[in-house]
Design goal:
151 residues, globular, signal, Lipocalin, 1 helix, eight-stranded antiparallel β-barrel
């Protein structure tokens, strides 16, 4: 009887090891963002003529991003982005860097500077990631900025 218990214990250990190995081997590969040019927009400037951003791989899960959208009657309204994107999941990005917005009729036409760490999410069936910290420097009661990076 003692032999049977030892054989059973060894079988359990081997089964657990095999199961753990199989689970590790089937982990999904990290999401790979499409490198190259993506559309980029701020709703105050408009979605009909999006700007462009260049996204390039730095490491397995981080990407450099840089670009802008310009508009307005005289071309002085803009949104720019410069920094790093970290892929949290295919629908969530963590941005570190600077986003500048300027629209003549918001925040007295001054530049709103967002420098730091921010989140972009693609909710539902959207085909873009949207900045989640939307309050313009003028404050939420005055303006909310939709800064979008398209897939």
């Amino acid at each position: 009887m003692k032999c049977t218990h030892w054989v059973f214990a060894i079988c359990l250990l081997l089964a657990g090891y095999s199961l753990g190995y199989a689970q590790q081997a089937t982990q999904p590969a990290p999401f790979k963002m499409r490198e190259g040019v993506h559309n980029f927009s701020l709703q105050w400037i408009g979605w009909e003529k999006p700007g462009k951003v260049q996204i390039s791989k730095k490491t397995d899960s981080t990407y450099a991003i840089q670009g802008e959208q310009r508009g307005g009657e005289d071309g002085t309204d803009f949104v720019t982005i410069h920094g790093t994107l970290k892929v949290i999941s295919p629908r969530e990005l963590l941005f570190e860097g600077t986003i500048l917005t300027k629209v003549k009729y918001i925040f007295d036409g001054k530049v709103c500077d967002r420098t730091g760490t921010y989140h972009f999410l693609a909710k539902g069936t959207r085909k873009y990631w949207r900045l989640q910290e939307m309050d313009n420097c003028a404050g939420a009661s005055s303006a909310v900025d939709y800064v979008d990076i398209f897939f």
